[in-house]
Amino acid sequence: MTTVSTAAGAGTGAGAGTALLACDLDLTLIFSRRHFGLAPGAAEPEVTGVEQIDGAAYSFSSDVSLRLLADLHRTAVFTPVTTRTLAQYQRVDLGLRPRYAVAANGGHLLVDGVPDPVWADEIAGRLADGCAPLAQVLELAERLGTQDWARLVRVADDLFVYLVAHSREMIPDLSEVAAEVAAAGWSLSSQGRKVYLVPGPLTKQAAVAEVARRAGASRVFAAGDSVLDMPMLSAADRAVRPAHGELHELGWAAPNLTVTSGTGLLASEELLGLLHSWVRAGQPSTA
């Protein structure tokens, strides 16, 4: 895959009118085959593998989406924003080198591919002051992990905890657990077979706000599909979510939000097209 470098004036924050595009990855820009979301009998669009696991392609983007991304990367500050751990994020290759990226739900702010230690210190301070310690919530997660529905418990970069269920359908009503973790300053959300326990101060939006400050962005556009994306989407000047995923199941809406008409790979192409039009609408005329 050809790698697109950051163009002069894009991703650097230099100049007025800079647009920041904060985009979730999984189920927004990249998809496993079982989440392509195509209608029965529909032709599969041309796709490119963007993540490999054990030497085999695992996640894909459509070639149309990758072309749109490359163009957006040249004209705006495209910033991948993911709940993936740092190692999981580093497996993804979209064919470009973003100036900024956010991993571990805001726990890591990468600058030119390297985690920023200043941001790491800032997050450590916010977590120390704003919520119960990881060890306390991990103990609760490990108790949940003994139940029949739970397959495993994982700690993500010493920042948050998630459980993986044997199946999505087996996950029980966790409202009492959610209330317990909320009292500790944490949140609980489910996405597919995963149940996330995340500290309140650890948000994608906090990291996106820091990227916007550093990049001198005058406009922020965002795309995402999960509950953990909600603060980022709500705070953006304009936002878009696909017509699939956790937020779609909840019927979540907001005044600044557009919902795609398509699902899966086609929703990704559609939302990137929207982002492209929003960026172009704010660019000065060259006439």
Describe the structure.
The chain is α/β, with parallel strands linked by helices. It folds into two domains: 19-124 and 211-281, HAD superfamily/HAD-like (Rossmann fold, 3-Layer(aba) Sandwich), CATH 3.40.50.1000; 132-199, Gyrase A, domain 2 (2-Layer Sandwich). The chain contains nine helices and 14 strands. It has a five-stranded parallel sheet, sandwiched between helices. The chain is globular, with a radius of gyration of 19 Å. The relative contact order is 0.17. The model is unreliable at 11-15 (pLDDT under 50).
- What form results from the Cα inertia axes? globular
Number of DSSP strand runs: 14
Please, what is the CATH homologous superfamily of the largest domain?
HAD superfamily/HAD-like
Report on the biggest sheet.
5 strands, parallel
What would CATH call the class of the largest domain? Alpha Beta
- What is the ordering of alpha helices and beta strands? EEEHEHEEEHHEEHEEHEHEHEH
Radius of gyration computed on alpha carbons: 19 Å
**CATH-derived topology of the largest domain:** Rossmann fold
Low-confidence stretches: 11-15
Number of helices: 9
CATH architecture of the largest domain: 3-Layer(aba) Sandwich
Please give the share of residues in helix: 25-40%
List the domain count as a whole number: 2
Question: Span from first to last CA?
Answer: 34 Å
Mean pLDDT: 93
Order the strands across the largest sheet as they lie in space. Answer: 4-1-12-13-14
Task: Tell me what portion of residues adopts beta-strand conformation.
Answer: 15-25%
Protein structure class: alpha/beta
InterPro entries: HAD-like_sf, HAD_sf, TPP-like
Protein name: Hydroxymethylpyrimidine pyrophosphatase
Organism: Parafrankia irregularis
